[in-house]
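Fold these two proteins, one after the other.
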Amino acid sequence: MADYLRSELLAQLPSERVEFLTRTAVLERMCGPLCDAMLAGTGSDVVLGSLESSNLLLVPLDRRRRWYRYHQLFRELLLAELERREPELIPQLHARAASWYEANGLPEAAIDHLQIAGNPDQVARLVSEAAPRAYASGRRDTAIWWYDWFEDQGLIERYPLIAIQGAWRHALLGQPAGAERWTAGRPPRRGARSRGWWRHRWPCSTPPCAATASSECAPTRSSHESGSSPETRREGQRFTWRASRTSLTAKPTAPMRSWPTRSRSPPRTVR
């Protein structure tokens, strides 16, 4: 199929158009300004309109024809071609896309591209701000996916605030071993995490902002401090103090929704 793409389709297009197709294939969805920023050029709106009118496997995502995506199979073939032609350019393309997404108020899309680009410092900065908001809006699996990336990359100890937030997540899910592992910056034991563990409910009705006062939810002092570095312990103390007053994020940028509590039926009146 890749040979067919090169011989029957890409070989018939100008080199500038082939370059546009392969480089923008790193985007799951695209618009003109995003493509301009990523390619360091102009006129991408016109190119996208031309590709759609030529029926070149480009799918519009809205009625205004602002956002598009490639057909999935076509995109996979273009990515393979980009890997063959310009493999060294791929991280740079993802970094440019991440910059555009962050500048336009889309940090979650920026995180995805920064992870592929291999920029953990920027990922940590965005995740520390976006993950608590994701929790508050009910998108817990999204935040867990971000935290797991740091664990898979062996970067827990490198980012104290991420380590504390990840430990807090384990504590809320009733996983003291995971909370202690994150604060200590140790890699997970083989088989310690079962498949589907993220589907558990909150272990108690205490909201996270009040969890420091509850022994049912809050991790113990030893789980924060035993085996952890002085920097992580200091960050944990500052984070816990802020969390007890506000939320899971050190500097909340948006109001947090109330966390789920157990429903209580009204008292029955006895006559």
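Now the second one:
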Amino acid sequence: MRLSRKRRFGQSNHEKQHAMKRTRPDILRPPGTGLFRRGYLIAPKVMKLHVKRFVNVLAVASGLMLCGIANAQVITLSDFHNFHLSAAYGNWDAAGSQIINGGEGYTPTLTSGPTSFGVNALGYGSGAYNFASPINGAGAYQWRLTFTISHPTAAQGTFWMNPGLDIADGTHLVHLTAANTAGGFLSYGNYTAGTYTIYGNNFNDTFGGAPLDLSTITAFNLELDPAAYDASQGGPGTPYDITYTSLVVLTQVPEPSSLALFGLAAGGLLMASRRVKRQ
């Protein structure tokens, strides 16, 4: 049998198209069944590949941003430079320390220096400091108070005491509890001579009052309850010395590099989407 001209020189275009449909149905489909580029369908496998690329880029950028956000901004409430209390109470107050007023009968000494504020007293005492204008600490997640105890000395031993901290927002005083002391209540713990940084991870009131409004910090109050160091509880009953050097709150802020990474990721996604549209 004699072959036609088409059959002698190979398959016709029509036959080639049918053969491609049978072997690669994802490459060529009838119009109206999907997205076409120059008459040919963009294969689902190709589309899935681009989607995976988008997800990978976004995941990497998000991970890098989370690492950068961990940077902390320090807001200093006091570095105790030439510091003076606005008011003193109990045995931190000269008049209040007198026996006739219910004190221990030992006149306290409050010392203001270029880098610290010291208290030498006997028995419970406290003192408040009012800011000239409110401080905005919105977003703060932690407070830190650093101080040094000279007495009791290491030779005297370790004693259960409370170097406490309260912060006010103009409407009420919030009694804070430290997260790194043994007591789990206010700042009670075992103390002896040495330098300490106690901190708390929230600004809730220990006694159940309303939380602190961090956007309007108006004052803070320092206190020391000698507790087991006091003679009434079997302690030496001698004056204590405590020196304050720093009170800060910490807030989390994104680093400039994190913002740059976010912009880079957004630009990458935009370029990738444009590439898909052109294909």
